[in-house]
């Protein structure tokens, strides 16, 4: 007779466990005038113990104004760069926070090259979907764009999305003159966050790595559409692996 009472409970648990989050969200950037955000980009690469590399870029953004049509006018400043690499007996290190007198000859040369970038104020504007309206501009000669905005900002779809929905995008690799394809999928929506999975087809150099598949995750603040963190894992051929991650403060 106990089965008569326990069966409804078991069915209720089963159906609750299978319940899917059908909430839809409209992903849009929301910044306030005067808001500041600091992005830390880390790039790690290794090859079966033969080579290790870690690069870090820290860049800060200040929202100068918000236009009536939802564009954010910002000023960016490069706050720090670190580069560490090891290949066999060759070890190299650069940290922009080190004193020049504490740097070796190679690091001093790098520091000199980066002087224009560290002295520059970069103007840039984006809209509420994450599209760059006006790219990085500065009056400092020799100061190149500090980062590619696609590394820290997704372009959001026009419509609302729910768990399981996906959209596609592409990014240009200026160094290789190739175009990489990305597919973004909503994997979870919580009261505070939106979790987005990414799968990418990366065009590589055929003789070295060939084309690669990458996958990762973006964590987005549900309330304002701002990036909280991201991580992309790029396993390649010849035991080479790269991990790209971003954190925001």
TrEMBL record:
Pfam family name, one: DUF6263
Entry superkingdom: Bacteria
Protein known as: DUF6263 family protein
Source taxonomy: Bacteria, Pseudomonadati, Bacteroidota, Sphingobacteriia, Sphingobacteriales
């Amino acid at each position: 007779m106990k089965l008569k009472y326990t069966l409804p409970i078991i069915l209720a648990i089963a159906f609750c466990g299978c319940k899917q989050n059908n909430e839809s969200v409209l992903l849009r950037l929301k910044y306030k005038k005067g808001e500041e955000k600091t992005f830390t980009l880390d790039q790690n690469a290794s090859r079966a113990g033969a080579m290790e590399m870690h690069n870090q870029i820290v860049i800060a953004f200040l929202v100068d104004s918000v236009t009536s049509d939802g564009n954010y006018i910002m000023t960016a400043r490069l706050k720090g760069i670190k580069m560490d690499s090891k290949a066999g007996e060759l070890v190299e290190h650069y940290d922009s926070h080190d004193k020049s007198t504490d740097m070796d000859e190679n690091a001093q040369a790098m520091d000199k090259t980066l002087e224009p970038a560290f002295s520059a104020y970069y103007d840039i504007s984006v809209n509420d979907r994450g599209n760059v309206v006006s790219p990085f501009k500065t009056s400092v000669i020799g100061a190149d764009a500090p980062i590619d905005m696609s590394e820290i900002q997704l372009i959001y779809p026009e419509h609302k999305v729910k768990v399981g929905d996906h959209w596609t995008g592409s990014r240009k690799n200026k160094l290789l003159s190739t175009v990489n394809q990305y597919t973004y999928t909503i994997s979870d929506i919580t009261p505070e966050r939106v979790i987005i999975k990414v799968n990418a087809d990366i065009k590589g150099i055929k003789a070295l790595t060939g084309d690669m598949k990458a996958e990762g995750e973006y964590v987005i603040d549900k309330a304002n559409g701002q990036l909280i963190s991201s991580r992309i894992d790029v396993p390649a051929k010849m035991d080479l692996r790269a991990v790209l991650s971003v954190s925001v403060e």
